[in-house]
Amino acid sequence: MIEVGHIRTPLGVLIIRVEKARIFGTSFTTQDRGHAIIPNVEKHFRDYFSGRLHKFNLPIVLTGTAFQKAVWRAVRRIPYGQTASYAQIARRIGKPKAVRAVANAIGANKLAIIVPCHRVVRSDGEVGGYAWGQAKKAKLLALEKRYRPKA
User: Fold this and answer.
1) Which one of 1, 36, 51, 72 is separated from 23 by 20 to 30 angstroms, measured CA to CA?
2) Along the chain (151 residues), what's the average pLDDT of each consecutive run of 10 residues?
């Protein structure tokens, strides 16, 4: 059975989709209908937005093709507060000519923030697209830059 919950974030309401106690979808919405349905999910996001959490440790399900999953796993390895280009991700998964396919896979990401596709930028350093809007992507990057651990 699929369950749906909502949590409030500084960037708007985030819908959380859960099946068998694992998250398989997160996306932004303008509607507010309640609270998260997995214990600690709301705390994870609260801690993320306050700069205390740099990596999510929640049960998730990656639903997609083998190629998409490879892209999303590479994206999850981008450290908090850092970025990588679409071309860099393509090289990391061993498909250096698949930049456009990498961008399409990133656009199909169903786990906003948890799979941090907002950390993927264009080769020229520009923000690039984001399924939930460039303004949200820019705010997420700014948030992570502000709370980035000092090296």
Assistant:
1) 51
2) 86 89 88 67 92 93 96 97 97 98 96 96 92 94 92 67
How high is the pLDDT of residue 53?
A: 95
Question: What value, to the nearest 5°, has the Cα angle with vertex 60 and ends 81 and 90?
Answer: 55
DSSP-derived 3-state class of residue 122? coil
User: How does DSSP classify residue 149?
Assistant: P
> Across the chain, how many H-helices and E-strands are there?
5, 5
Enzyme catalytic residues:
117
Phi-psi region of 71 (alpha: psi -120 to 50; beta: other; left: phi over 0): alpha
Return the pLDDT at 6.
86
Q: Between the CA of residue 105 and those of 84, 113, 126, what are the distances in Å?
A: 15, 15, 19
